[in-house]
Design brief:
The protein has one domain. It is built from five helices and no strands. By secondary structure, it is an all-alpha fold.
Amino acid sequence: MSVEGFAPLCGIQMADHFVLRHRRVSLRGIYARDPAGAYAYLHGFNPAAVVALALGCAVYIGLLNPLTFASSGPYKFLTASLPAALGAGVAYVVGSRVYGRHPRGTATG
C-alpha cells in the first residue's frame, strides 16, 4: 500500500472504533479463534473494509494523481486525505451494516 491508502485506512479505523464499536474493545475477542467472534471475518478479511479501502483510494487518486501530483476538484481547499478518509469511513459503516457483520459495541474482556 502506498501513500494513497493511509488516509482511507485511518477513516476505516476511526469509523470502526467510534461509530460501530462505540469505543469498546474486546481484548478476548482480538485473540480468540472463534469463527463467530467479534473480530472474525470472511477468511480473515473484512469485505466491507476492503471495499471501503478501495473506494477511499479511488477518491484520493481522483483528487490527486500520486504520479504527476496533478490536483483536481476540491483539492485546493480540502486536500485529498480528508475526502478519502471520510468517504472510506462512510463506505465502511454502510458496508458493515449491509453485510450484516457489524460489531455490536460490547466489550467482554
